[in-house]
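**Discrete fold encoding**
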Amino acid sequence: MLVSEILAIKGKVLFTIGPNRPIAEAVEIMNEQDVGSLVVFSRGEMVGMLTFRQVLQAVQRGGADWQSLQVEGVMLREPRIASPDMEMDELRRLMVEHHQRYLPVMDGNTLLGVVSFHDVAKAVLEEQSFENRMLKNYIRNWPAGEGEE
């Protein structure tokens, strides 16, 4: 399965924030939209990613003043990138090796979406379910007497 197929299953809804916005606003968006990451955009291009992991690190470092920190000071500046033609196994390996649960999917300079570890797991389950249905259908329609000796 390709990353483009995972995006098709997931949909291309994208949640973003500007680098000069406060972390508190990012937390509010992430909570309201039930997402674990935001793409950080400035002047029409991606400049980083903010995930709940970076937010937790900011809370730990910032103490009582964490809410006033800006996204720019906390975001992941150079996240690993997936391409739409990347195989799912390669995507999983990249996520695991770099401890990155959310990967932006880029086609050249165009951001197509973000794929999460959850999206990958869901795609695997759907793929297995489809294969199981196909195998059951194949077995159900097996011609009588074939394969018997």
Remarks:
- The chain has one domain: 3-140.
